[in-house]
Every structure is written in structure tokens, then in C-alpha cells.
Amino acid sequence: MAMLTRTVPVLLLCLAAWPAWSAGEPPRARIDIEPEQVNVGEPVRLRLTVLVPTWFTSPPVFPDLELPNAITRLPPDSSFPTSARVGRDTWSGIVRDYQVFPQLTARYELAGGVIQVRYADPETRQPVSAEITLGPQSFRAVVPAGAEALAPYLGATKLDLEQEIGGETTTLRPGDAVVRTVTARIAGMPAMFLPPLLPESGDTGLRAYAREPRVSDTVAAQTGAVTGTRVEQATYVVEQGGTFELPAITLRWWNTALKQIEETTVPAVSLIAAAPVTAAEQPPARGRRGWSWTVAGFVVVLVLAALIWRYGGAVRARMSAWQTRWRHSEGYAYRRLLYACNHGDGHEIQRRLIAWLPRLAPGLEVHDLATVPGAGALATEVRVLMQCLYCRDNGELPLDGRHRRRLRAAVRAARAAGQRAQYGAADTLPPLNPTSARDGQPL
Description:
- It contains seven helices and 21 strands.
- By secondary structure, the protein is of the alpha+beta class.
- The chain folds into three domains: 23-142, Immunoglobulin-like (Sandwich), CATH 2.60.40; 155-273, Immunoglobulin-like; 309-423, no CATH class.
- The strands form six sheets. Strands 1, 3, 5, 6 and 7 form a five-stranded antiparallel β-sheet that branches. Strands 13, 14, 15, 16 and 17 form a five-stranded antiparallel β-sheet that branches. A three-stranded mixed β-sheet has the order 2-11-8, with no helix packed on it.
- The protein starts with a helix and ends in a 20-residue tail after the last helix.
């Protein structure tokens, strides 16, 4: 009885002190990893829970948990409050969820992360700060058996490829363009895992201008499943006649539902471009004409028209032949190009340039300008023009007056250099002192 009398007060004292012991404990944190082994590219959920004995006076500062060769993201509504029993007390808590997408086959180690918390002191109710160091944790990423041959590994429940072709493909002419857009959607992986889609065109006479790829991810609100989308677009400009092929695109991937390798393909695209017409084949030029005729030019035209009307068919035939030769001459194409530089849009300038270059020098094409003496400035301006037309996400960039002036100057300089190269030998003066044909001595 005496023993019981001494024990009961001690037990009552311990029970009275129990809440104080619990409230005096430091904040604590734990990290849960689920699952501990995943396939490469599939998400691992890291749940970080922080508990304090009273309440938070400011939000905790969580670590970013960035890992080498992995992508760490915060899903929607990644942070939310919670509570837990610690001893006989209820502690306040905050939960932070992370999604980690491993990119390689490896074991990933998490250690040394620090959480900074600020909460009310249980006794004074004044804000106090503390740091919590996370203990070591790990998970493993593997490639499923049977998918080792995939490079890169793409694991998904579904993978779709779509292709869109803008423009004609069978009635092309030099200077025309075709736009190819390819979209890949993968269910179960972020878009960063998708490889480049559009191969470079190796065909001579077809120039490709690719835009920057667009990647985006969509996360389902209910399940948290990720769907990645990658969109690539390229504009192909025809520079000469012929038949070209944009290659087929195939992605090999691992179907995580059926446990097998599958392929998704979009077909190749054939492009047929007619060769530039010759002088005998080309129809009379149509469209707008420059009205920068001088008074003398009008007088000449009126006189010629009167002569043709007066003397009949023979003169008209000669006039028609002269007009045909003029329309297919280098000078005519040169003036049409200058007019386009002054008043036309970028596409008209491109067409006039492609039509003028072969008349300046047989076989000369746009991509040869950089190697032609005297045409370096024109090559630079044409490159800027192509970027304005085909390499902007918001469409064609209007040409300003400064760029038009540079284009006109570069065209004139290239023409002058071409004419010097063509007629330089004819301009050489004969020697001042004639020589004897027999001994070569001055007469």
C-alpha cells in the first residue's frame, strides 16, 4: 500500500508533463518515395511532409530536389496542409509532392536536402526558425526487358504522329515553297524525351528553312498523367526543277500496356517541280508592269506602233520577236527585280531573283552567290530575306526601307561584277607600239 501511495503521484506527474515533452520536440520531416523502381521516363512520386508542434508563421522553404540525368517537376496542387498525431498532441504540417522523371538507367540517390521552417514557439508563441536535414533516400530506373534496343527509349501507353503539308506538291516552279509540319504526342512521358522529328533534306535544288521546335506538356488534373507534345515545322523552297522526296518519319517506342515494341510512321512526301521554261516556251509576262517609262520611250513605242500598223504583218512579226527577246533578256529580268525590290513583297523579290540569276550567268543559282566574286553582299541580303520569309514563328516579316535599299545596292553590285567578268577581255586596249609579225620587235 505504501508502494502504491508513492507510485501514483509519480505517474500523475509524468502524465501532466507529457504534453510539454511533445511540444518541446523540434520540427520533423519525412520523405516517401513511390515506387522505388520505375522505367526510364516514368514519374517517381516524392512526397515531402514537414511537421511543427504549433503552426507555421511563414511557408517552409523546400529544396528543389534536382538530380543529375533526371527532370524534377511540381504537379498541379503540389502543396497542401496536413496534420498528424505526435504523442498526445496534434502537429501542423505541410506536404509537398514532386515528380521525378529519370532519363537514364541508374540508381538515384537523394541526400543532404535542407528544409527551412519558421513556426511559433510552443511556450512564448514567438516566431522561431529551424532547419531540417533530410536523410538519405534512393530509387532505381531501369529499361524493361525487351526494350534494350530502343535508342532513345520511349515508354508510353500511346504515341501519335501527325503530318500536315501546306502548298502544292505536284505543280511547283522554282521559287515556290512547301511547308511541312509534324506533330508527335506521347502519353506517359514529357515532351523533352521526344527526339528531333524532321530530317535534313539532302536533295540538291531544295532548300529547307526550319523553325524552332515547340514542346509542351499537359498534366491530367485527376490522375497526374503527363502527355508531351513536340511540333516541328520546316519550309522547303524549290530552287530548280526536278523530283524531290521528303523522307518518311518513324518513331519506335515501348508500349507499357502491351509490353512490346511498336512503330509509328508518317509517310514520305514527293515534290515535283517543273524546270524553268526556255525563251521559246515561256508565255508572255503578265501582271503589274513598271510605269517608269520616259517620254522618249513613249515616243519610240508610238512610232513603232504606227510603223507596225502601216507596214503590216512583217513588221508586226519582227516586233513580236523583238519583244520576246527583250522579255527573256538579262536587262528585262534585272529591271523586274529592281521593281520588286522597290514595290513588291518578299516572295515576289525571291521569284524575280531566281529568274534573273541564270540570265546574268548561265547556271547561276541562289545558293551559289556566296562563292561568286562581287556577290557576297547579295548573298548576305538574300539570307536575311529567307529568314524573314520562312524562319519566324509569327509569319512573314515585312521588309523595311533600309533592307530594300541594301537589296537594291547588292543587286546592282552583283550585276556590275558579273558584267565586268563577262566583258572584261573585250575592254582590253591593244598595245601602243605595234610589233613585227616576224620577229616581234617594235616597228
